[in-house]
Amino acid sequence: MGVENRDWYRDEPKSRRGVSVSRTGVLLIVVGVVGGLLLAGVLQAKTRGPAATYGGEQQSHNGATKISLLPGLPGISVGGDGLYAKNDPWKAYLADEQTCPGGERLDAPLAEQANTMACLVNYARRQRGLNPVTTVAFLDQTSLAKAARIVRCLDFNHDACGEAPDSDIRALGYRGAWGENLFIAGGRYGAPRPALDGWLNSPGHRRNLFQPEWRTQGIAVEKIAKFGRDRNMVLWVNEFGDE
Prior knowledge:
Blueprint (H helix, E strand, L loop, with lengths): L7 E3 L18 E4 L32 E4 L6 E4 L31 H18 L6 E2 L1 H17 L13 H5 L6 E9 L5 H9 L2 H7 L6 E12 L2 E12 L2
Parallel strand pairs: 5-7
Antiparallel strand pairs: 1-6, 2-6, 3-4, 6-8, 7-8
């Protein structure tokens, strides 16, 4: 495993596994990434009883602390119940409520939350000097298919249920470059803006989000009453394409 984690992004399908982080108890954050461990607000690894498959470590979140994603890597500070990383270096990339309404709402209809996420993604890309991406139906469709597979197999990975990460989009005849970001969290952390902040604070997800060749995107968001031993979860799938 390399010292820098990255999300699934290849021109040709290749199955790789990610590592995630969970919060047992009241709040849980897991940010999935292919090839390494992702950012989340966490304390120390803790596993008990039957659980969903996250492809790696599970860690609890209890108050402010500084953690390392992997041995030898720089630590990150997480502040208690705060929705965002402490001293968040990507704060300027988070659209405010006026620009992208509903960023911290969990009670909005899922379609509205997906629209908010699309707005947040494009705001972040514009801040980076990149073109916005257009939401298209077929990427919404494949994002929903990935979310359904993750829930069905209790497997929070890009290759959930043992399927190739890009199997759905290739089945539709798509042959261009493709990428995917995943996020799962409990409580307030599952709202659109905190989820995007998790991606921005993960090198692999951030690199995927800021690929200049992306022209299109699709978004799926699902509320999950029970995912393994975890309850009241929100799952995000954000797919990108260059066609």
